[in-house]
């Protein structure tokens, strides 16, 4: 690559970024190409605002290998995944410098709250800037996707769609905004039912599902219709329609994964109890629906007017440890390195 790499004002290849997790309303589950991390299906999500990852990246010319701290600790498997992501950036910049990375999540990691989404969106955003790569949002989304599929969506804020894509090289399997957060400012109550890391991570869960679940082809075949329904509901701000399609996609994904061998059980008893509670609230006329990702936390999405009642109802469910409250937020962005303190 014929481009001069330029250090920042203090002579360093250094940047810090923040990204927020997103929760899928029409779920991504399954890959058609594991090496490029191309999804078996398109997906639609909302980016949150009060949960975040903050990541500081410093490339050090001449350094061999990366030094990684995630939430103040260093774990071999997590570091390997971060190095693989940095390798994509190093390749783009044609350098082989090691990096010092410090990252922190303000919510439980690897527990079904999309830490891989905010984590790799923040890493790509900061790493690209540290290397002076001037990447468009779409290019960052493609790189983030290769590190964790859901991270493609956290480059953007609000309502976001990640396209299945058609090209063999995956450059069109990219996320793009559908609607700004401010245009339909729904709120989300997150019921935390366990802070432990899940036993089967999302990547492994998808692999097992595709290999063994008899419902895999039905899942893939029905996704396009769900995407159309959800997209239309979002563009029309039709809460009831979005509620129905989101709960449907969530339960369909979990049914698919439960039918793997051995079956994947991402819920605990409290997760199930929260689903019943949300359904009961909706039957009483409250504008709220649930979704659950690969983990035991329940996300209740509601109109702003309903948030206090939803939070109170979820807090009341036995086994709920905590209820977080968040709005919809922005995409990945630059922050001051002082804000990271990992
Ligand atoms: P989640 O439901 O939290 O997304 P996943 O199984 O998809 O769970 O991914 C969790 C993994 O994502 C972690 O084990 C770690 O490898 C990676 N990860 C989480 N947070 C970060 C971060 N801030 N920076 C880089 N990688 C991260
Ligand atoms: C259930 O993006 O974490 O949250 O691409 O293997 O890193 P990898 O998986 P990941 O999977 C997220 C799955 C989900 C649904 C979704 O976010 O669409
Ligand atoms: Co994830």
Automatic annotation (TrEMBL):
Keyword Lipid biosynthesis: yes
Any one GO cellular component localisation term in the record: cytosol
InterPro entries: GHMP_kinase_C_sf, Mev_decarb, Mev_diP_decarb, MVD-like_N, Mvd1_C, Ribosomal_Su5_D2-typ_SF, Ribsml_uS5_D2-typ_fold_subgr
Limits of the Mvd1 C-terminal domain: 189-315
EC number: 4.1.1.33
Coiled-coil parts of chain: none
Diphosphomevalonate decarboxylase-like N-terminal domain ranges (all copies): 19-175
GO biological process: isopentenyl diphosphate biosynthetic process, mevalonate pathway
Keyword Lipid metabolism among record annotations: yes
Keyword vocabulary terms for this entry: ATP-binding, Lipid biosynthesis, Lipid metabolism, Lyase, Nucleotide-binding
One Pfam family of this chain: MDD_C
GO molecular function: ATP binding; diphosphomevalonate decarboxylase activity
NCBIfam families assigned: mevDPdecarb (TIGR01240)
UniProt record similarity statement: Belongs to the diphosphomevalonate decarboxylase family.
Protein name as annotated: diphosphomevalonate decarboxylase
Organism (species): Dyella psychrodurans
